[in-house]
């Protein structure tokens, strides 16, 4: 269990004054301090951790965000930014002495510029909301995390979210042009814009994925892309994880870049099939979902090449979608994976390590051994093209010992990822969850260098503290 | 750069920087020095080069990654990738001729440190978008790494992006790991002759907004097209849209593009011609830069490109448009007033500029990149101090006094 910090007693003692000081800055109902109304903000997508905040504010404008930040800065109050609260790493977990700044009311699309292929939206617009706004002209916003119906673009930027299609289109960082940020002391700064190349340092790149450590994000300018003529998916089922892994390597080396290349192991296949009835092969040990794009003829050509590659690996079965509806059915199982696992086990931890794709079979074997050793079931679903694993570790939340074992299992999986040359997190972020594992990936002086950069933006460590960096950091995070 | 240090080992680079820091003596950081003509000149008693810190340390084609020490010549890296049918995604330019660089190859460290990208940037991202991992020596004399050798990684602050394009002012990059992709089987180009800048950029926008995966889009006025051998016979302007894919897809997509843009004079350039034309566009060959001229790269929203060209024409500045109109290559008299005209045009278009080439006197006298608003400039100073507390790494390269 990750330790939550001791709240600053002097801040707790000033709670009424702080709330009173915030009220004039915002609309009346936009400052929440009543305990029962604070309860919905006590957790995010990592529901094992809960903490009711000091207060919640829901600003309507960037200027209000700036006013809140100036007030909190002057009064030494910590701030936890929050979008839709879908973080799987506890990135939006409150602190008892912190004000949660909820950005969900900043939900307007400000500008859509098809000629320049960009859109400017406020931080609280949902990921899918951007695509929906530009779909009528055949455009889309590329990164598509599983939570895209709910998660907000400001949170996507903060965590540098990925998705199933980033093998071709890249992650959030590759699809941004500009940000409007509010600094810890309430300054509003525009970063980038509608142009491609920044001059000076790459603040856009540094802020993306910075998990609320450096500044608050209130507006985002994203690239929007014209969709392809069409897309089609296929399934290929294999006799072992090793064989499926070898097939992935061959596809990647073939010169074809599929738009998506997803891998599911046997437990995941079964769970998803029971949930979605997508026609997944229940006799397979491993299954790939492969999607290509282009005209109908181009799709045929690419899928023919991929089928030839799969055929070299003794597949149990292959099924090429013949229509958009069949492709949707294939994706339905994958996109519903979290819900499907939820039916088997109400509680699970979704891990997010990344490994070199060549290590896939070895890592899956070792995860299986760990699962047997600790007596907890695991289903593996991941973005095979880029090596981003999502082991879903099932446990019983009513059993503290079971939760403890699940956390230990998860930590061991992530250590394994680093050991084979990968990293702790590919798209969910470090947050609270993986904070104490950071020394596995970084030497002490490297973490200290990152802390110095954090300090350059946030000298008093008021922004989303006690996340990302291990707690035993010494005075700077006290 | 001939009498400075050229360590073989990363540890020796770290020792040299630690020594300079403890002495408080500034260091000129470079590879082969092919880009020293860019930006502000560095006043430094000492210099250090990555040129002997070379070698590809990891190449895994099926994982789409390659790692190389900073001094590795780019051409060596590209040749290694080509053997496996792969390439650098951001299509880095070779500006050696433009910058009148010494006759030595540009290094991978130099490309990452300057974040220079070619025509493919409009569709597939900049060099910084594909830096997966980095090793560098900070101004503390410490070796740090960020990122790694996997395609996705959000662990900790992204120092890969911060160091890419920092021109050696925040750390001396010693090794980079890059995402690479299969090189396309074929390249084709739709050429639309005779359009003015506004109509040309509108055509580029229509192509980039089509479903056919245009991978580059440029507009060259007649005088610039005349400087590219394959376009010179046109005798007029050229709007160019590139498709890169499997051969049959290139044939299909270039034709579909011609139909979609409904431009009857559209001509489709074959593979060899396309590659030659885009290499020229990439390396600023079309730019009518007299030997004494200054050169700028201005980055604006694509539809603003034509306005920048016309705004600076009165100052005798001329150029062409890449990135669908969003990259404005400019050349003109190397004078303060001319620079001011370019700066004003870029500002009016809410864009950025970089003074890419000029005599040292001009590069010292003017802002080579846009000034930052005061709150951001304060952050810049603090971040610089966080990585280079004694201010010894390429001082003054981007901003005077920093």
Shape estimate of chain A: globular
What shape does the CA trace of chain B take? globular
Question: N-to-C SSE series of chain B?
Answer: HEEEEHEHHEEHEEHEHEHEHEHEEHEHH
Strand content of chain A: 15-25%
- Give the helix level of chain A as a range of percent: 25-40%
The separation of the N and C termini of chain A measures 20 Å
> How many DSSP E strands of chain A?
18
The rounded distance between the terminal residues' Cα atoms of chain B is 22 Å
The low-pLDDT segments of chain B are: none
Total E-strand runs of chain B: 16
Adjacency order of strands in the biggest sheet of chain A: 15-12-14-13-17-18-16
Unreliable segments of 5+ consecutive residues of chain A:
473-478
Instruction: Name the structural class of chain B.
Output: alpha+beta
Rg of chain A, alpha carbons: 23 Å
Largest sheet of chain B: 6 strands, antiparallel
**Which oligomeric form is depicted?**
heterodimer
Give the helix/strand class of chain A: alpha+beta
Q: Helix segment count of chain B?
A: 13
Task: Determine Rg of chain B (CA atoms, Å).
Answer: 21 Å
What tags apply to this protein structure?
heterodimer; A: 478 residues; alpha+beta; seven-stranded antiparallel beta sheet; five-stranded antiparallel beta sheet; 35% helix; globular; disordered C terminus; B: 402 residues; 16 strands
């Amino acid at each position: 269990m990750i330790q939550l910090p001791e709240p600053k007693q002097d801040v707790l003692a000033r709670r009424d004054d702080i709330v009173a000081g915030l009220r004039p800055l915002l609309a009346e109902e936009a400052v929440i301090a009543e305990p029962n109304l604070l309860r919905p903000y006590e957790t995010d997508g990592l529901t094992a951790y809960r903490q009711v905040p000091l207060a919640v504010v829901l600003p309507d404008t960037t200027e209000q965000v700036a006013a809140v930040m100036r007030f909190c800065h002057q009064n030494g109050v910590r701030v936890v930014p929050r979008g839709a609260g879908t973080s799987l790493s506890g990135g939006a977990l409150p602190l008892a002495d912190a004000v949660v700044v909820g950005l969900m009311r900043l939900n307007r699309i400000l500008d859509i510029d098809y000629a320049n292929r960009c859109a400017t939206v406020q931080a609280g617009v949902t990921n899918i909301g951007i695509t929906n706004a530009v779909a009528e002209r055949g455009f889309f916003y590329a990164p598509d995390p599983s939570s895209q119906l709910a998660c907000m673009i400001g949170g996507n930027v903060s965590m540098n979210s990925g998705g199933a299609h980033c093998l071709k289109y890249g992650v959030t960082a590759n699809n941004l042009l500009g940000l409007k940020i509010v600094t810890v002391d309430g300054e509003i700064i525009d970063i980038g814009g509608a142009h491609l190349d920044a001059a000076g340092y790459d603040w856009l790149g540094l802020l993306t994925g910075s998990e609320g450590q450096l500044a608050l994000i209130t507006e985002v300018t994203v690239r929007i892309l014209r969709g392809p003529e069409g897309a089609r998916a296929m399934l290929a089922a294999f006799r072992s994880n090793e064989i499926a892994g070898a097939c992935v390597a061959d596809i990647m080396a073939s010169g074809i870049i599929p738009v998506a290349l997803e891998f599911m192991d046997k437990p995941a296949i079964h769970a998803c099939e029971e949930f979605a009835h997508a026609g997944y092969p229940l006799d397979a040990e491993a299954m790939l979902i492969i999607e290509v794009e282009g005209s109908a003829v181009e799709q045929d050509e690419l899928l023919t090449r991929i089928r030839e590659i799969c055929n070299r690996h003794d597949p149990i079965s292959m099924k090429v979608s013949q229509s958009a509806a069949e492709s949707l059915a294939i994706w339905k199982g994958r996109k519903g994976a979290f819900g499907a696992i939820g039916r088997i086990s109400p509680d699970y931890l979704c891990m997010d390590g990344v490994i070199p794709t060549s290590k896939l079979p070895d890592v899956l074997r070792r995860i299986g051994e760990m699962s047997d050793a600790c007596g907890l079931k695991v289903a593996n679903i991941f973005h095979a093209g880029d090596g981003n694993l999502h082991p879903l570790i099932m446990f019983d939340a009513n059993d503290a010992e079971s939760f403890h074992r699940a956390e230990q299992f998860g930590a061991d999986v992530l250590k394994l990822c680093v050991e084979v040359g990968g990293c702790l997190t590919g798209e969910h972020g470090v947050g609270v969850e993986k904070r104490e594992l950071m020394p596995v990936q970084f030497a002490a002086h490297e973490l200290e260098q990152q802390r110095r950069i954090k300090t350059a933006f946030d000298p008093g460590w008021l922004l989303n503290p006690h996340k990302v960096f291990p707690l035993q950091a010494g005075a700077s995070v006290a | 750069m001939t009498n400075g240090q050229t360590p073989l080992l990363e540890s020796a680079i770290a020792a040299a920087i630690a020594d300079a820091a403890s002495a408080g003596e500034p260091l000129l950081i470079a590879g082969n020095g092919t880009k020293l003509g860019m930006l502000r000149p560095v006043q430094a008693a000492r210099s250090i080069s990555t040129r002997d810190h070379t070698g590809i340390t990891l190449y895994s084609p099926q994982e789409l990654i390659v790692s190389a020490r900073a001094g590795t010549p780019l051409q060596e890296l590209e040749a290694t990738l080509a053997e496996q049918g792969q390439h650098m995604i951001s299509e880095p330019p070779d500006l050696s001729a433009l910058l009148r660089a010494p006759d030595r190859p540009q290094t991978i460290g130099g490309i990452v440190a300057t974040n220079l990208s070619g025509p493919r940037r409009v569709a597939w991202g900049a060099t910084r978008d594909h830096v997966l991992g980095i090793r560098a020596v900070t101004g503390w004399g410490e070796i740090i790494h960020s990122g790694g050798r996997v395609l996705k990684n959000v662990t900790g602050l992204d120092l890969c992006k911060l160091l890419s394009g920092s021109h050696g002012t925040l750390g001396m990059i010693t090794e980079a790991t890059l995402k690479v992709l299969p090189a396309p089987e074929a390249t084709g180009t739709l050429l639309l002759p005779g359009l003015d800048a506004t109509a040309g950029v509108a055509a580029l926008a229509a192509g980039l907004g089509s479903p056919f995966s245009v991978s580059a889009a440029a507009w060259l006025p007649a005088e610039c097209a005349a400087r590219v051998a394959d376009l010179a016979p046109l005798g007029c302007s050229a709007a160019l849209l590139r498709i890169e894919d499997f051969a049959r897809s290139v044939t299909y997509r270039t034709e579909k593009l011609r139909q979609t843009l409904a431009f009857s004079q559209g001509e489709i350039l074959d593979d060899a011609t396309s590659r030659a034309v885009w290499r020229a566009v990439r390396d600023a060959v079309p730019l009518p830069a007299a030997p004494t001229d200054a050169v700028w790269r201005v980055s604006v929203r694509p539809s603003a490109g034509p306005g920048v060209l016309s705004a600076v024409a009165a100052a005798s500045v001329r150029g062409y448009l890449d990135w669908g109109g969003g990259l404005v290559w400019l050349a003109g008299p190397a004078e303060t007033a001319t620079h001011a005209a370019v700066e004003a045009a870029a500002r009016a278009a809410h864009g950025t500029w970089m003074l890419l080439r000029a005599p040292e006197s001009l590069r010292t006298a003017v802002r080579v990149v846009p000034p930052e608003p005061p709150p951001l400039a304060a952050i810049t100073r603090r971040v610089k101090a966080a990585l280079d507390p004694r201010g010894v790494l390429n001082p003054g390269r981007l901003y005077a006094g920093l």
